[in-house]
Design brief:
This is High frequency lysogenization protein HflD homolog. The protein is mainly α. It is built from 10 helices and no strands.
């Protein structure tokens, strides 16, 4: 992320930062569902997710998602439905909450975290050469997910059109999305996010989301 990126400063408030990080998780979940059903993906949401995954040393919290909450709009809308007890796509919610479970497993696995970190450094080199969303980079991100996180006990079973899911580059794109979801899940935890807070601090999360709207 370059220093010239326009930054929309978020309040220096843990709940707001947790809301944005959690929106990244649900944005990944939503894109996985969209890919699996339609083969297409929202370009802005996709670019935000991939760039966040590759940026392991961001200049600021806001820089992780490109400097403006609208880059996480897709995920924020899902999260607004969750905290507002409105109807949301149950498949997207399942993916999102399973990503949080996976994150809890991987953050306790120092060897796997080290492996992932080393892989991401190598993939950053690829991204500098080919571009962040080039298919070689996406393939490497997908491979990183497959060879690390998909070996854990908790698995994400993706539902969708079988012919689409087996099409060229689709498994890699889906796994790259899931890796992006893990990146935001770890960020959420780093900012103090916990599963119980989604139940007991729903009001505070809703207030934070209203300020981001």
């Amino acid at each position: 992320m370059t220093a010239s990126t326009p930054i929309h400063r978020v309040p220096d408030d843990p709940t707001t930062r947790q809301a944005l990080a959690l929106a990244g998780v649900f944005q990944a979940a939503s894109l996985v569902d969209e890919l699996a059903r339609t083969g297409q993906v929202d370009p802005r949401a996709w670019d935000t997710l991939i760039r966040a995954t590759l940026d392991t040393n961001p200049e600021s919290f806001e820089a992780i998602y490109g400097g403006h909450p609208n880059n996480l709009r897709r995920g924020l809308e899902v999260l607004e439905a969750v905290v507002g007890r409105k109807q949301a796509n149950p498949v997207v919610l399942r993916y999102g909450f399973t990503l949080l479970l996976l994150m809890n497993q991987v953050r306790k696995n120092d060897a796997m975290l080290g492996d992932l970190g080393g892989r991401l450094v190598r993939i950053q080199g690829q991204a500098e050469h080919f571009g962040e969303t080039h298919e070689n980079v996406i393939a490497s991100l997908g491979e990183a997910y497959q060879e690390t996180l998909s070996t854990l006990k908790t698995r994400i079973i993706v539902q969708g059109d079988p012919s689409l899911l087996q099409s060229r580059m689709m498994p890699e794109r889906v796994r790259a999305c899931l890796l992006g979801g893990i990146r935001f899940a770890l960020l959420w935890h780093q900012q103090g996010g916990r599963r119980w807070k989604l139940v007991f601090q729903r009001g505070a999360l809703k207030k934070a989301l209203d300020q981001l709207a």
